[in-house]
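Throughout our pipeline, every protein is held as a single compact record rather than as scattered files. The remainder of this section carries one protein's record, kept here as part of the documentation.

===
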Amino acid sequence: MPTGNLPQEAKKDWEKVYENAKKNCPKDGDCEEYAAKVAWAAIKKMGWKKEGDKWVRNSGVIELSLVITKASYDKVTGRRNWRAVTSDTDEDLYGDNMSLELFEDFISRIESKEAPPEPFCSDYWCGDIPYLSIAHYLDLGGNGVPGKVEKVYIDGKKLKATGYFYNNALGDACFRSICDDLYGEKKFSENKVRVSIAFIDWKHRHKINNKVFERKSLDDICPYCIEEVNNGTGGGKQYLKGHLIHFALTRVPVNERTWMEVEKSMAIKTRKEDAASIVGEDLAEELEELSKGDVNKSLVVKAEVEEKAQYDDHDTGIECEEGDKECVEKQEEAKAEEITGKSAVEDVLPEDNADTLLGDTNAALDDDDNVGLDTGDALAIDTSEVYEAKMKIVDGKPRPAGDFLVVEDPDKPSTWHLPVRVNGKLSRRLMGAAKAALTDPQGFRGNKYSGPKKAEAVRKLKKLYEQEGMEWKSLVEKAYPEYVADTYKPYGGATSLREAVEFAEAQDEALRLSQIWIAFQSVIENIYYDEGIEDKSTAILAATEEFKDMIADKEASIYKSLLEAKQTKQTSHPLEEKFNVLRAAYDAAVVAEDKEEALREIQAPFEDLGKYIVDSIRENANTEQTELSIDDKIAKSVAEAVSSAFAPIQEQLSMLLAKSNTANVVTGIPQRRSIDPAVVGNRNNLKQKSDTPKLRDQVERSLGMTFG
């Protein structure tokens, strides 16, 4: 079969696919014709496209379409703003879809100012936020740039972008064209000006077999894509990683997730015609002349199914016969009025006076929540119908989906878990809590996350840690790298059933010790809140002694083997060093001026102590049972060591409690989820405030091991 002027590399691929397709051609029909169609489709799939008389390769570049939803003019500053929004992450008609992981990868590369591969760099741009161009002309040294992309961000499951046009001929022409589309007489016409986003496809997943392809270089070709073309199968792809290249204003229809079909007919066939439809013939001619001396880094364009009606969800009750334009206009006007509460005629922008009638509408653009659902709701400039993002109430404050690490269903805030951001900004405190909930055996303060998308959440969080320059390894991981590596092996790497059972029993012991600790914390809190207990100091100290008695035997069994194993290296109690560090940190915290900072500093030795005990329990699982026999002297010595270690802490606690008025309420203490609402109400009604608002926090950190 003739392959025209395909490059040699492409010819080999074409012939290979052609021969394979002939083996699988349908029984009825022209086998050669079928194989040729499959081969040409494969060539397109591999990134080849024809430009003029030449075939060029677009290495892994995909194109995503954003609909421009708003345009506004600020009379004070003279800025002409625009806003664009993509479709969501749901599947399209071809089964492909973007993902929040892809969008986050976009943002990450923008924020880090990562440079794209050399073919996509120029003297004007090489990384950072993508530039704005017209009809896929390159930046042309800045001469082909009509404006600026100011912000790219994620809102729920949508990727959105905002920017403005420059005060030059290109910027003026682009702004006027968009205003005509949104507000002029042709506001319901096809092929509106939109922003086309091109990105390098670095990673995607095939849904039919769950195979993941990750591109290492621009020359890599996905073998699973070729396999699907050869077999005539396909279940769609999910794009996982990518690098945004540029934003192009265009009227050529594109589908968010499909490759170009062979010569699908459109009114606009060339880049110059596309540009002329936006900025006019003269400016398009200038762009064409400037581009002749530039190396063409062409991008893949994808065909789009016809865009659905803008107000499909609104029934006006007006039925029109095909071809009745007057009826259709009335129908659309009625739909617009239904959404905006205003007549569409009130907001039509005459072509000759857009600046005057647009007025000062930049305020609407400054509010990220003030975003239209689709192009239609941008009809009214001052419309009260805006996109209302769903929120999850946390501590009485609304939080968007973007603040959470796990979002099962963007439309159901109850399925959002593990907050890591506050108002869109990363919080290191929340990131630390999420890490503990995801990876710590005891979770964060006893709370562990084991729900959906856990593995994905861990990957995302690691990436955020790297982005923030934070160390992922914990103190225990740094101190005991060999042990930490072993914990990720099933049953601690046991190679016999007995070892596995012993490991499981040790895990149970660790869990029981953790539960005792959590119960102890709750008892202390209950005592402090119980207005019927006058001598709170005595009650808390009694609970502390009870706690020590309950764990004494456990500690003795844990450290008996450690003492025997390390008796040649140490003569003191194995916890002595940990408690010395803890006592020193506590003494410093009590006298420190900045209590918040002091409490943060004291958290590390507490975590180290708790982890050391848990580590010892698990290490003990690999010790022979004969080594676990305990005599009364060792048990007594361990109990005395623990009691001795707690003594100075108890003394300090007694002093603090003596200063505290038992009728006062510590409003800064985190409330238990199971606390009686009536108690909360009584506390809130008290006017007097505690002199030690962080007392509960100190108590929690001072009386034992912290596991979360």
In short: The longest strand covers residues 237-250. The first helix runs from residue 8 to 23.
